[in-house]
Structures
1.
Amino acid sequence: MGSEARVLGEVALVVDGAPVAVGGPAPRAVFAMLALEAGAVVSRDRLVDGLWGDRLPPNPDGNLQTHVSRLRRALAAAGAGQVVVTRPSGYCLDLAGRVDLHRFDAAARSGRAALAGGQPVEAVTRLRAALACWTGPPLGGVDEFPFAAPAIARLTEARLGVIEDLHDALLATGEGPALVAELRQVVDEHPLRERLRGQLVRALYHGGRQADALEELRRFAAHLDDELGLEPSPALRDLERAILTHEVPEPTHPGRSPDPGPPSHPGPPSDPGPVPPRGLPAALDSFVGRRSEIELIEARLADPTARLISLTGPGGSGKTRLAEEVARRWASTAGGRAIVVRLDPITDLAQIVTAIAGTLGLNASSTTDAIAHVLSDGRSLLVLDNCEHLLDGVDVIGDLLSAASQTTVLATSRVTLHLPGEHEITVPPLRLPPAEATGARAVSDATELFVDRARARTAEFDPEAADRTAIARLVRLLDGLPLAIELAAARTKVLSPAEMLERMRGPLDLVSDPGRRRVDRQQTLRATVRWSVDLLGDDLRHAFARLSTFAGRFDLDDAAAVIGDDLGVDPLDGRWADVEAHAESARVASEVDPDADLPAVARMNYRTDALMTSGDWEGAADTARAVLDLLGERISDLA
């Protein structure tokens, strides 16, 4: 009996072509969450969060177990067998390769490959097969659960991408004029998607409607300027010039049109490509910005000599989310598998190997050689997340890379790993709006992240009513740190951005997560900074406390004057890099925009705490005297 999980429509188990109910709403939601990552383990915490969000029942783990039991009974009654498997950290749906999402992904990859290979007719067939996997709006019947909104957004975006690819393939076959009506409808539904707009313009031009094509571009430019204060992309400007000079490329395969309409069979084409890799957590929210960082990391991943890439940066800068997004993109294009291993819960260095083995489905007692053997079975991208507290044990990374020649490691850490062959990429804060920008022009990656997360909390959140200028000031005050922005956005149910600005002049703990399921170090900004500082030794921690008096950058002479001789810490000491790296967790504004209007009250609060809680009262007095002496010297220099 053939069975397949369906999520690209009403959620169901399809047996021999007929959908079968899998229990009530909650068991069906569990089934959907497992199906979205079929073949991979989904933790109990994520399932609980996906079912109830912030509104937890009295016994969430017990309630989850009840729903899993009901789901198992429904699946067994449908003849699917025991496909929900219990693992130490959660549950796994043993239907890898038998999910409509997997067929969609495989057919989409195959279609894109055909298009890139100059086979648009074949691409049309395969891309239509991908779209035929959809039977309705995704996650039907469970779209009210907390996990659904970001997953629906991600799936919808993937479908739109395939539609755009299909239009490109049809344009290449000379079908442009026949596409105008369809493209007009899709553009009206998604007015800011420039690729769709460009496709409509090309379809108009190839239909002999040059004037209409130019008018379409001009209307779009005016719309962008009015709504966002932006200009069209260079690609659209180039297209306009090509239309004016009649240099728009002609279809590459005119007269070789594919059969019209979708295929009669909804399955994927022959040889659709590999099944999506295991080990990647599903994205629970949308990914915002970071285009230049992704391009840089992907360029390194394409370099065969760069097999260890570390993403470093202050706590809350978004290293984990960036690494996961890069891994997701890599897995969909490189034909390999990406595996994410969480190292933050680990305290014992010996558990690094255990954590990697567990993620790969191996026994906890597996050796490095056994892990390397599994990784050697094809190309692999191993993401090791949160390495900064395990620096004395990261030599195992080198051992794995030596034994598994087709594996690349992408590590996240607040500090450099100091391993041979390491390629370090610093993850900066999100791009901030210009200091002088107001209203609709005060838009940047940082403000868009705030708006996106605020809408996730409150669907009716209106950035215009909330005042984009206030949002811009708020994200500048938060230094563009994604964690800080998300924590602030979580407050939009009770506070407007302007009200947050007033309260942000208080301590760091104001920016906290009202939810209950973030890890402790991400509950508040203070906890994030404290995690970094606690990783320093006692002498370096005292040095950090004294250095935290500086609001911006400082040179070695300034550092030596403030630290003094009594701590025995030399700024030229090799360990100095640790102080510099961890200091970024409490001081990033000068890196983002030295001229921005940043009162830095949050940083001043932490500096005060650092000095007062260090117990170094005499040192604090010495620091104050040293700072005053430095100020005196600076004033004398200016006189």
Note: Residues 259-278, 506-525, 574-614 have pLDDT under 50 and may be disordered.
2.
Amino acid sequence: MKKRSVVFLISFLLYTAWACGSLLDKISVKPFPLLGQLPSNKVYCMYQDQEGVLWLGTTDGLCRYDGYGLHVFRSSPMYPTLLPHNDIREITETRDGKILIGTQKGMCAWDKRTNRFISFTDSLLTNYEIRSIVTDDEGYIWVGSYKKLVRLSPDLSEVKSYDSSLPVTSVNMVYKDEAGTVWAGFWQSGLYRYNRTTDRFERMPRLGLYDNPFRMLQDKQGRYWLSTWGEGLFRMEVDDKNAIHYVSESLSGENEDEVQNLKYAFCLFEDSHWGYLWMLGYYGLTIARIEDGHLVAIPSDKLATQTNNLFNRICADREGNIWISAAGDGAYQLIVNDSQISNYSLPVWQDKTGRLSPIVRGIFKNNAELFWINYDRIGLGWYTPGDNSLFFCRDLESTDDLGDLGDISTFFSPSSQKEEVWVGAKFAPKIYVFLTRGGVKLPTLKKVLDLKSIGAGVPLSIKEDSLGNIWVATDYGLVVCRTDRDKLAVIKVDIHDISSMEIDTRGAIWLGTHGHGLYRIVPEYRWGEVVKYTVMHFNAHNSTLLSDNIETLCSDVHRRKIWIGTTEGYVQAWDIATNKAKDYSPLFYSYINASIYDIITGKEGHIWVSTAKNVIEFSPDNEVIKSYAGLDDTGIHSFERNACFYYDGVYYYGRDGGITGFKGTSDLAGKAQAVDVDITDVRVSGKSILDGGFSEEGLLDI
């Protein structure tokens, strides 16, 4: 089982995206995946440990989530002393990896090496609600409770109280800044700073009228922020002489709800993506960006519509995704979408079709504004995202019969005539040639190529060779159209069940088939016409092909190879110089367990492999893979074959519900890294090692 952080990226169903200002464009809101297994849906705190495991503190037990399953720890009649109390208030970690758990009545620790809980006997750690736990740079553990602040030694053996230099009252918070300085805030008793040299706390100047610092945060620029209980937000400045000054902060662009919310902010958080300040209060979430040291509110009301808006804490995982614990709904993960991914949900669709859902079965672009789309049950249509306009073939004013465009097999645009788009009918031996012109929303029909008249069949694929000749694979053989476009010629080849076609850098035509393997056709020309050709046939018996059931082909001009995807899920690269195929399938075993639908490539040289449920970006040079399956920002539900296209640096995929575009990523640079393997749990007769039960010899008692 691979070791991994608790991140659900990348496990990409579509959740609603929402906007917060010009930078905070898209965040996908994802409920905790195992909500039904939580002992209580009221999650108070969360923590991700050094191994990437996510710990959740609920009002009725402690939960350990490793990305595969959830394990619940709680005291019960069977395990009455497992936890001091089942209401978990705080979770953190020691430097040697022990999990520290603060509860409504005392604290304990979880030792990962022995899978046992460690109890504390000191009354300072057992009789009070634990409100804050911080591990400092020397490994000491500072514990703030309802009664006082104490310090635990790194080995958890000694407890020290600071009664002489601190007020004996409820501890609001303990905080460690970037320099390692420990700060403590006390209920209506002020802010204190720990002095390591004297081993004492120093009283800071009075804060506002009530002197009630509740939470503290140092942002990436080194600024300190203090929330209070009843007086709002303050910015704390530390001068060259280490003197403290407070500046009361207000939000520009705020409304009355945000004013009230910041008066009682009980959580401060800065995200790693934009450096925004996130503040939780009794009225929900307030987000602000920092400009010239001051705060400017960012609208976050749309997030409230996707959640219950009853939040407790905010934290970030190691990937920078934001987690918010909630009362009633467990927890939410806010996945920061890859800016390289764009979704087109076709909002105008239902206005045009009524109740039908847009299923895009084919897609093409020949300019920046217009999508050519094959819609399920509708056929040919055009969509312009800029003005959200949608037209169907039936909207064209044409004297020609366009009834055969109710389903499309292929799209194509000649390199020498970009304004032309060739559209192949899926169930008729016809190719419709359209013209697109700037400023005109709908294309015009230029001509119809009747393939039946020359003895050819239904068009399956259209490609162009380096000489400008256009080749059409049909269910009755090959058709070549000369560069002058005036003459169609049929190439008589006895090849059946053609599934795909490609043309390599040498001008050879490659045909993939269902059940018959791979064909290579090398034409010879005289005066621009094909005068003869040679055919080579490769299959699983006479070559290094793994299967005769070929679904898709892709010409890789960077490496002079033909990529092959099969019905069984094999991915191979055929070397056109040696006529041998290299098998890349083992690299994809973790991502593909179904038929390959399409393989395409673009200018950067990455290979994109898609299946019914997955999109994979692959760098053959270093064999690094990025899978987009399960990423919540893709909106991918299901694909049809040939429902993808590369245009101007973007890989577009048609899907149930619209279109998704990928710009690719530079993250595939470098070498693939070996992944450590951890065992996250072992069960014997239904009993987990996480429940303890070990004998002194380390054996599980059964």
Note: The first strand starts at residue 27 and ends at 31.
